[in-house]
Automatic annotation (TrEMBL):
Pfam families: PhyH. PANTHER family: ECTOINE DIOXYGENASE, PHYTANOYL-COA DIOXYGENASE DOMAIN CONTAINING 1. It comes from Kitasatospora acidiphila. Signal peptide: none annotated. The lineage of its organism: Bacteria, Bacillati, Actinomycetota, Actinomycetes, Kitasatosporales. This is Phytanoyl-CoA dioxygenase family protein. GO terms for molecular function: 2-oxoglutarate-dependent dioxygenase activity; iron ion binding.
Length: 298
């Protein structure tokens, strides 16, 4: 099922958006999803959550953090290249991209206070220890779709330090269980149901605890260049009957093999052969290719 108007015009990130993103490390996209989309994806997420809860696959507090979003819930596939958010991805990273990590989150009200833990981090894991340049390269970006109302603070909001994506470190405790002051300038990002947050993986951020009476629900997709290794395990998805209806661009983003027998030798994730990359073809056909992302010579 699709609720998206595929005839709508698609345009790159605006100059104002780019300036804000480069300055702050994130953008809020108000009304990225319609009310009908919010209802549809909330219903789908709720069904999965009940299945996981019945199977004992949620945390003791009732929280669910389910990886491989589309493989776990094929109904969310249209979010991965949504026209209201996806242009931000290829405007920043270019056309040789895929989703290397995604998750479905449900965080009910916390009834008993949790032990303190300093959770501030940059996305990327080991790359933040092993890449020697300063500041570290961007490498990936992420979209968070909000299905619950986090328009007020204290609802498990996404918390960030604007502009911190250009800082390789923030002050923190020697051990995560030691209470420590919040980073200077930290704010909770507020959003309405249907809003999206697009952010640089280097942005220092954390998920706050949800002590409100609202269950926090969100769907997250992280995009990187296709030469980065994927965390999602989508082999079973490629055999799923729903996969036949996915578009070429959606298949690219989910890491499916694209080149067919008799074409160039394999689908080169480094972007050597743009003709095997559906998003390159889409942007070329619509006059949207950014000349700063030329193909590599094989």
């Amino acid at each position: 099922m699709t609720l998206i108007d595929n005839t709508a015009s698609v345009a790159p990130m605006t100059g104002e958006q780019r300036e804000q993103f480069e300055r702050d490390g994130y953008l809020v996209v108000p009304g990225a999803l319609s009310s009908a989309e919010v209802e549809y994806y909330t219903d789908a997420l709720d069904r999965l959550y009940e299945q996981e809860r019945a199977a004992g696959q949620v945390s003791p507090t009732g929280a669910m953090h389910k990886l491989s979003a589309v493989a776990s819930l094929p109904e969310v596939v249209d979010l991965i290249n949504h026209p209201n958010t996806f242009p931000l991805v290829w405007s920043i990273l270019g056309w040789n991209v895929h989703i290397y990590h995604s998750h479905l989150d449900v965080h009910p009200t916390i009834r008993v206070p949790k032990p303190y833990r300093f959770e501030w981090h940059q996305d990327g894991g080991r790359q933040n220890r092993e890449i020697e340049t300063t500041p570290r390269p961007r490498l990936s970006v992420k979209i968070a779709y909000w299905l619950s109302d986090v328009s007020e603070t204290g609802r498990g909001n996404f918390k960030v330090v604007p502009g911190s994506h250009l800082s390789d470190r923030i002050d923190g405790p020697p051990s995560r269980d030691i209470r420590w002051p919040e980073p200077e300038g930290a704010i909770e990002v507020t959003a309405n149901p249907g809003d999206a947050v697009f952010f640089d993986r280097r942005l220092w951020h954390t998920r706050t605890d949800n002590y409100s009476d609202i269950t926090r629900k969100g769907i997250f997709f992280a995009y990187s260049h296709r030469w980065s290794h994927g965390r999602d395990e989508n082999d079973a998805l490629f055999a799923h009957e729903a996969f036949a209806d996915f578009s070429p661009v959606q298949r690219q983003l989910l890491g499916a093999k694209l080149a067919t027998e008799g074409q160039v030798p394999g689908d080169h994730q480094w972007g050597h052969y743009p003709e095997t990359t559906p998003l390159h073809g889409y942007l070329r056909e619509h006059g949207l290719l950014d000349p700063s992302y030329p193909p590599l010579m094989p």
